[in-house]
Amino acid sequence: MLEKLVSRRYWWFALSLILILPGLYFLLLHPLITTGQLRLGLRPSIDFSGGSLWEVRFTGKAPGSVSSDQVSAAFVSAGFDNPLVQLSQADFAGTPTADALVRTRPLSQQNPLQERQAVEAALGEQIGPTSIERLESVGPTVSQESTRSAVLAVLGASLMIMLYLTWAFRRAPHPFRYGMCAIIAMLHDVLVVLGVAAILSTFSLAFEVDALFLTALLTILSFSVHDTIVVFDRIRENLIGRRPGETFDGIINHSIVQTLPRSINTQLTTFFTLTALLLFGGETIRGFVLVMLVGLISGTYSSIFNAAQLLVVWEHEEWKSWFGRGRRDPEEHTAATAG
Description:
CATH topology of the largest domain: Multidrug efflux transporter AcrB transmembrane fold
Strand order of the largest sheet: 2-3-1-4
Number of domains: 2
Mean pLDDT: 82
CATH superfamily of the largest domain: Multidrug efflux transporter AcrB transmembrane domain
């Protein structure tokens, strides 16, 4: 099986496609079909979308005694249309107490205190004694700047990684290919993570794309590239010490097999730590840890089954056969380069 990893590269590409397509549907097509608007299927936090986030505690109310419709109706009566309500519970003086997170439009700049008082009055009248434990508000200008900075951070990191890898492998044949293949594998990981985030945004009210999500995404890029460099470095060493008769495909396959135990063992240590955090780390970081886990698994897979395999596709110019132009046989190519 391990001797045929490279020869089955299109199986690995197909598996990647199967993993990416459902996420792309929920990321791009599902919002267009359900809302008629062209937008990404991600639920942004107030950091990126703007608005107000209210944490409301209902004193003396047990969890389950307050419904989301009651909370929503109180906010609507106070002048906040279409509030998003997520019920939870808090431990108040040792007693479980009903709690809610509500996201609304931003407070007005003219009368923010009056609007807060109107919400408190409406909640107290319709539900009972209430306290607002937290109120965060982000205006549209700040949210647009956050979104722009997030996009620039991802693009800037990708560009620097490609340039660095091209320079680091400058003594290998065609060093630019290593940088490009690493970026393509990294793009695979980004699409997998964004797809999972879009699915969670569609089916889970608890998941939002916030600053922690951006942190996880940038960390995933470094995970992916780190593992890819391990594989590429062994490929470079084996190419330099190439023996007569060795094919390019054989060298790539042998390099993958050599680095496979190291890649898996290294990533497993992080996997166990993240799994422990996911199970016992608390609600506030659960989304962040879940995204990190998905990215870790995807990054390990892509560096072995995508990045290294793309070098073989590029070496043989296999895309020519996709458009009916044919390609050189690997053995003929080996003989040509050896001669």
